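Support request, please re-run this one:
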Amino acid sequence: MVDDDMELNRRRILKGATLAGATTLAGCSGGNGNGGNGNGGNAMGAGGNGNANGNGNGDGGNGDGDGGSDYSGQELNVLTWAGYEGVAQMIEEQTGATVNISLISSDVDGFNQLQGGGTQQFDILVLDNTWALRNARADNVVAVEQEDYPRTENLIEQFSWPYPTFTDNDNMYAVPPRWGWGGLGYNDEEVDLEVLEEKGYAAAWDGSFDDELTLVDWPTWVIPLVIMQIFDIGDQNPMDIELSDSQLDTLEETLVQMFNSTTAVHSGAAAIRQDFVQGNASLVLGTGNFGLSQLRSEGNDWMKIMFPPDVGGWYWTEGLCLVNNPDRNDGLAKEFINACLTPEGQYSICWEDAESKGAPVNTEAFDQFSDQEQKDIMMYKDQGFEATDELLSNLVQYKISPQQDQWLDIWSAAKAASDL
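Re-run finished. Output below.
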């Protein structure tokens, strides 16, 4: 995932034409400006049965990510969110290969590039959440086999093989490398956590924090949290259900109240961070640790995220996929994926080479991070990775709602009807 307003030092960007993607809200799964962790975008009509196996004619067998295989003179082409440049350099140094990184602006962009001929060019696709199965059903990617990725035995239980979000008909189509979460971001020097726990997400629209709330224009990140707060949906994922017409009306009315309490609505997360630093805001709804962790990594320990105990929040997951390329360098591609799961690779993609921070999935990598780095990534109650189980047991998987188009229309109508 990548913040679209982030300036990046890119090791190597592939040259060539890029197929224009569908218009989306910039972001991680289909576009929400903050990369790797959003989802938006229009539903794709995907054909195929999702069970393609590919051929993969690259030499070298199944690498374990620790090097040792010689791929001198060979190339690996990776279509990805930002943060994987360090692993690319690691693979080049270990194998003698050249790794070409091409950055995507959204999951729609990645999907469309593969549909437009990218399956003849790329070996690996990095995507988010339910886009793994969308690409599988379009025959863009092929199934991955657990035996090729031994470090998956040490994954956090939530992401253990087979991870349901990436699995269809007993085939898994992506290997998870990092994750993150979203709820209500707040300045804990100005806002009492007990007040937020009592009010829940309603603090964003009940008038308690008028002109202290800032927002990013990412409806598919915010609306699930609003639905969880205002409707009794039990254990259901708000991105799985379809609201009635009366419930949609209630949702719109709530969003109008939220916009009336908002000091600003921004197009990207950088402006949100600036609002907090300049003292223009003390709350932000729907922007997770991927968009706010830069503040923490710069020493602003007051920036935290919470979820209401009886409501919950959402989490996102990236996935590493093998592209359905008949000439895929299979051994080198697996070497790259395995390198992402090593303790060194996890540290690289989650912290060292990631301007926006994600959390590692390999429990063996936890000790690679200092206590402060862990807290800066998790942003939860001054806890590090020990908060993983508590968080994931109270969060739902980020998905694309079957009512996404209605959500977008309601969001726009509510903004227009508000005092903004």
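The longest helix spans residues 245-260. The chain has a mean pLDDT of 87.
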